[in-house]
Amino acid sequence: MHEVGLVNSILESADRSARSNGATHIHRLSLRIGALSGVVVEAITFAWAALTPSTLAKGAELDIEFEPARCVCIDCSTEFEPPDIIFLCPKCASTNTEIRSGRSLEILSMEIS
Description:
By secondary structure, the chain is an alpha+beta fold.
């Protein structure tokens, strides 16, 4: 489960940022996780619960914003949300497509004091 390592890295980054702003507690942290990021949201929330008690984020809420996959067809310019891992244009059936969103894994915000 690589999500434990991801949450550990997220907590280290959040801790550095909070401390550099004079904070002693993180109350809430918001993440954006893309459909194509390879991250299992349930595993993130499990790792969050397991790892936060010994950090500035003890008792903090974790908000997760899901980012759907979005593609564009290079051949006909159709934008679409792929239904699976085959990025086939629904208009012209081309596989000449480009991923526009869905790969994110980022901290959006955090509430500190």
